[in-house]
Amino acid sequence: xxxxxxxxxxxxxxxxxxxxxxxxxxxxxxxxxxxxxxxxxxxxxxxxxxxxxxxxxxxxxxxxxxxxxxxxxxxxxxxxxxxxxxxxxxxxxxxxxxxxxx
Length: 102
Fold this sequence. Notes:
The chain is of the alpha+beta class. The chain has five helices and four strands, in the order H-E-H-E-E-H-E-H-H.
């Protein structure tokens, strides 16, 4: 029992570090947006489409990869309701590579 708290803190801190490192950088055209899971598919698709082109769907129904104008893309995705925005390689891991080549 006494080892549970340190293990939980280690997992939590690792998750925070990974999430911060996977965040979007300025000038990126491809981002993965994680929308609230309680939203309908239509609402998620509408929110993502209002920001840019939907490049691919993630492994979970509320994750979409969005391609768009890089100036302020991450901020627009957040304003559209995304809970988490991932950029760079993290966004590419969320989708099938063949879908991104099309």
